[in-house]
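Quick note —
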Amino acid sequence: MKRSSLGQIYLFCLSIVGLLAGALGLSGCSLFWGPNYEPAPPPSLNQNHPTTCRQGEAPFWAASNPSLGQAFAKFLAAHPTLTFIERAVLWALLQMNVRPDLASPAATLQIVIALPGQAPHYYDFAPGPQAPYLAALKYLLQHYRHQHTLSSLAALLDRSFKEPLLIDAEFSLFLQQHQAAVASPLGHKYFFKGDQVLRPGEGLPRLAFYDLVATYKQDRAATEQRKLYPINGRPHLRCNQDLSLDQHKKYQIAAEIVPYHFFQYTDEAGHTFLAASSLRPRLVGPHFKLGPQFTFAGSAPAAPAAFCLWDQGSYHLQMLAAHDRDPAQHLLHLIALQPSIMRPKDLAMLNQLGRYLFLHPPARLLVESTRMSEEQIEHFFALNFPLYHVRQMGNLWFTWQGAKQRGIVTDVRHPTFMYCPKSNEQTPLN
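Predicted structure written out below.
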């Protein structure tokens, strides 16, 4: 994408900010800037952190844990008869082993299923069951009428998935930040070596998946909810929140940043599974409540992840945003770029542009200034609005399916492992 195009994008987006602020009757604000403000040129793609996988006829998947991604490849090679949904459910079960803080049985689960020749389906599973995460997986197996049950797939993992699993950077950081809360006798058993929490690259304990599923065997399948809103009268663009300008001025802003765990699986036929899970761990006294095994007890997060589906002809794009107080705003800003957001070749660059977030009360604008050029910063100053620099914000993923290719773009702001065999990075995208 040319630099002039980037400037036009920011001018257009800033006009949206002005409209949003005007809708709330805000004007005449002072300007503020953090002490570490250093303007930077538009970012280039980070070759040491690949964020894009595009394929023709090979499967690929992504999540935060490198050891799990490699081990899953060996497991699938040994079980070639598994169906797409069964593989997706197995991938989801394994997430509980590597991110129990966000993907335990009590976690919520939002899913997009994209099947060739069909418009993708969005599922947001109600937190009614005791274990909504497992109930959601049970629903998928029943709804798509697969022979395997959740219990039989769990038993298959116990029997055949033998590769060691290592802790990743994000879960290790969670343990460091909440060391006192995980230092219960049970937490010390699973998450400590000596007096220190597990560090990246150290071995993780293993879940007994069949026993875990059996604990909740009386839990009913989840009741899925999938209401989507067309955006500004465009039926081909639907989101799980109403992002039309007149509606979003109400701002569904959470009191704090809500973390989510993202993971994805796409098979050789182009079937795609994109998911986001989250959990608010429960404190009992000074410690998080754990169990069964080393899963986390808890409740639904304060706000859902934001999903948008763009379906036009044979091209289908799924957009996922979270890890912010109002992640839907980031999708709103991208949706404003209608000519660009439809092109897969632009998604990686768009996802690295500096982001901004409007918050109130009090009215203020957070900006990723170090990912912006001086020209773009000047446009923000021209708004005459309170500005605050933040190092990074949000986590955005995109998956897409076209006539001949499918792919994923992840966010350089968050460590992601991507298993992407036989990828042809030189093949032009539509």
